[in-house]
Amino acid sequence: MKLPASLVRSPEVTKKEKWLGYLLGPAGALLLNAVLATYLNVYYTDVLNLTPLWGGIFLPVFPIVSKIIDAITNIIMGQVIDRTRTKEGKARPWLLLSAILVPVTGILLFTVPESNDTVKALWVMISYNLFYSFAYTIFNMSHGLMVPLSTRDSTARGGLSVFNQITTIMMSGILVALVFPMVIMPMIGVDKSKWISLMCILSIVALPLTLLEYFFTKERITEETEKADEQNKLSFGEQMRILFTDRYMLIIYGYFLVTTIGTTIKNIGLVYYCNYVLGTYNDGVTQMLVSVIGGIPMGVGIFAVWPLAKKFGKRNVTMVGCALITIGSLICWLFPTNLVIVLIGQFIKNTGGLPGSYVFMALFADCLDHMEWKSDLRIDGAAMSIYNIIAVAMVGIMTGVFNWMLAKAGYLAPFTAGSVAEASAKLAENGWAAQVALESLKPAADGVLTVALAQPHSVNWVIAFAFVGLEVFTSAIAFVLLFFLNVEKTIGKEQAEIKARHEKAEA
After folding, report:
1. Which residues contact residue 202 at a Cβ distance below 8 angstroms, ignoring those fewer than 6 apart?
2. Which residues of 213-227 are buried (b: 16+ CB within 10 A; e: fewer)?
3. Model confidence over 312-327: pLDDT tens digits?
4. What element of type H or E holds 416?
5. Closest CA to 81 of 2, 148, 145
6. Shortest CA distance to 329 belongs to which of 422, 465, 227, 234?
């Protein structure tokens, strides 16, 4: 089947490519994923009330088990990409398929039927795996390879990495962390129908934007290498041997693993932390302040991070960033209920997060080039499959760990009531205490009250550790790992040698 051609023809990276292919194109799928990373677990615990399901073991266990499937599909997808040969590249064609699959499976995640516990559990497990293990795996791997396969020009590639991450930061730092807590969450509360309507809209928006990414990207390195016969002969074991005998790949995978663990737990804990430790349930202010004050560096840093990385090195500025994240996290963890101090700590943390957010993929691409120089083979799909396994597996594993900690600590989900009298009766019946006075609660447009409960001290400690405590340790470990990542010292020479090899082969 002949695929639609890319609208990018230039041998050099173009402005349209940056703005449409790398900034705007990925926005739909990344927005959907950012919402899921922050709020899917809230939907499971607060809207569907799945925390007590199967004696409290369902939510901790199912995301972890699901990642076994996810790991397998990521490995398969890596092999598929490395063996895909079309005029439009080896990764880009899969963006077309993901443009359909991501919206459909995103909708299925939330349309859980009103039925018995077994039906609910099966729907949640199947829809979760259809999205993360299938649809988003296809998108995330093909999207993730666009920067490494776009060009071998380090400066242009670094610029694309920054543009790519601007979209991610905009989706998670502005819409999900700012608009959602201020406007969306107070509006939808724990009303399932409103959640479904919202997620249907977000899922559908991903379709045209993903198509935009397909049409305005180009795989110049794939066109340059054309070593299909050699790569097709490599077994999976040989590919893994090449990957895991390269020390720079091992280091960057280790760095990505520990930072992803810290970031994932933090993202999951954000809403709970603002609802119970720092503020009150869906107050529309606390999460907004944490996101805005803490997120200012992520916006301003767009203009500073790449010049600094060019001057001092991508590895070096990222190491400084890890040190700042450790310091900022420690400040927040020591005073988790003090809003002013937490905002200062969040500002420091997000300043430190700039290099890792904006230049990581350019650093990862340098490691891929080094591996190509060393082995004379390009195995981008296999390399990205390991990267993607880490990225998506940690979502499931850390969600399971977080839910297990919540359940063990005694988390109490909010409930809805038609009146203050009904809410009072339910509180008295169960021996619960409301987080705030019932008279001060504002009912939704349909008159329904959402009543949040005062959490035990053990729950608040778990939530605070998840949001501000864990990154004290993960960032310190990442700093140590980066100390040994010296790929930039020789990458210019290695890229020149790779180019000479291709020119000799063509001659």
Report:
1. 28, 31, 32, 35, 106
2. bbbbbbbbbbebbee
3. 999 999 999 999 999 9
4. strand 415-417
5. 145
6. 465
Count CB neighbours of 420 within 10 A: 15
User: Residue for token digits 């601007």?
Assistant: 166
Distance CA 407, CA 401 (A): 10
Q: How far apart are CA 397 and CA 261, in angstroms?
A: 9
Q: What residues form DSSP beta bridges with 449?
A: 417
Spatial distance between the Cα atoms of 46 and 308, rounded to a whole number of angstroms:
43
Q: What pLDDT, in 10s, does the model give residues 405-457?
A: 998 999 998 988 888 999 999 999 999 999 988 888 887 766 788 899 999 99
* Amino acid symbol at 446: D
pLDDT digits (tens, 9 = 90+) for 188-244: 888 899 999 999 999 999 999 999 999 999 999 887 765 444 445 678 888 889 999
Q: What's the gap between Cα 321 and its chain centre?
A: 19
pLDDT in tens, 20-34: 999 999 999 999 998
- Give 20's contacts (C-beta < 8 A, 6+ positions apart): 212, 213, 215, 216
**SS percent in the chain: helix, strand, coil, step 5:** 80, 0, 20
- Distance, in Å, from the CA atom of 336 to the CA atom of 242, rounded to the nearest integer, reads 45
Q: With a cut of 80, say whether residue 301 has pLDDT above it.
A: no
Q: CB count, 10 Å around CB of 307? A: 10
Question: In 3D, which of 149, 138, 152 has the Cα closest to residue 222?
Answer: 149
